[in-house]
Specification:
Blueprint: E1 2-4, E2 15-17, E3 23-24, E4 44-45, H1 47-57, H2 61-68, E5 69-72, E6 81-84, E7 97-98, E8 101-102, H3 110-114, E9 117-122, E10 131-136, E11 150-151, H4 153-159, H5 163-178, H6 192-202, H7 204-213, H8 216-219, E12 220-222, H9 224-231, H10 234-250, E13 257-259
Parallel strand pairs: 1-9
Antiparallel strand pairs: 2-10, 3-11, 4-6, 5-6, 7-8, 9-10, 12-13
The chain binds iron/sulfur cluster (2 copies).
Residues 27, 31, 33-37, 142-144 line the site of one iron/sulfur cluster.
């Protein structure tokens, strides 16, 4: 998800879609481009993508990170990002691509789910909340854009079962936005605090251990109802993790977490 300032709107390619605007698109195995878009990608994964994919594959977060991703720190960023590692074959295909299509389709990442639409958050100083914006941006080789089916953003999200992804990615975008400035000082993003924050975002299994099996609950006060909620629901635990990162790294107050006195 891109952070976009109003003055940079002109630099975004593609057709901007406002609420109610329609676009044509239909992807199906009968098209000669079928599966072309699932190779040689710079596919950034968001925290919720990892959660859904590791659940889908029945493996731990550690196993998923070891097997499937590369962690990169872009020069302008103060928080690492996670890239899906393409297969080591000539075409650098996505590791989840099969002849029949995507093998993780119900849990495919947010970017694949919204494709050929790209979402962003428009940050206007005068507005209280960022505004979601959308661009229709199929690559030239994508023949689905010439098909007859038409969609709005709303019907497309519904068809792609994208609502929970939109919600989680927007929450994550709020956290990421804070990292436009450097919170780490001399220790850098690879220091102890950086590692903890990365774990809370991208390694839900370790974060669960941290919350329930370390001294976390001796140091932090968390309401019983919230604890119950996060104990058995990984999506809720991830939302809690986002709040904890904001509190732990940036001191952003939250009703969910308080430091215990003494
Ligand atoms: S290139 Fe477009 S139409 Fe072709 S398979 Fe990919 S999304 Fe579908
Ligand atoms: S996850 Fe699925 S849809 Fe996304 S690039 Fe890989 S094969 Fe294609």
């Amino acid at each position: 998800m891109k952070h976009i300032a109003p003055e940079n709107m002109d630099q975004i390619s593609g057709i901007r879609l406002e609420e109610g605007d329609t676009f044509s698109f239909h992807c199906h195995p009968g098209l000669s481009c079928f599966n072309w878009c699932c190779r040689n990608l710079n596919l950034f994964l968001y925290p919720y993508d990892l959660l859904r994919l590791k659940q889908r594959l029945g493996i731990t977060s550690d196993q998923f990170v070891d097997q499937y991703v590369d962690i990169v720190l872009r020069p302008s960023s103060h928080f690492p990002e996670v890239l899906l590692r393409m297969a080591e074959n000539d075409e650098k295909t996505c590791p989840f691509l099969t002849d029949q299509g995507c093998s993780v389709y119900p849990d495919r990442p947010d970017t694949c789910r919204s494709f050929p639409v790209e979402r962003g958050s428009l940050y206007d100083e005068n507005a209280k909340k960022p505004k979601p914006i959308h661009f229709f941006r199929p690559p030239d080789f994508c023949l689905g854009q010439h098909e007859d089916k038409t969609w709005t953003i709303e019907t497309w999200d519904e068809d792609q079962d994208a609502r929970s992804y939109c919600q989680m990615t927007s929450r994550w975008a709020e956290v990421r936005r804070l990292f436009q400035t450097d919170p780490w000082g001399k220790e850098g993003p690879d220091g102890p605090r950086g590692k903890m924050a990365f774990m809370a975002a991208y390694n839900i299994d370790r974060f669960r251990e941290f919350v329930f099996e370390s001294s976390f609950l001796k140091r932090y006060k968390v309401k019983a109802a919230r604890l119950k909620k996060i104990k058995n629901d990984e999506q809720e635990l991830m939302k809690f993790g986002f709040e904890w990162i904001k509190f732990f790294v940036w001191g952003v107050k939250t009703k969910a977490i308080r430091l215990k006195k003494g």
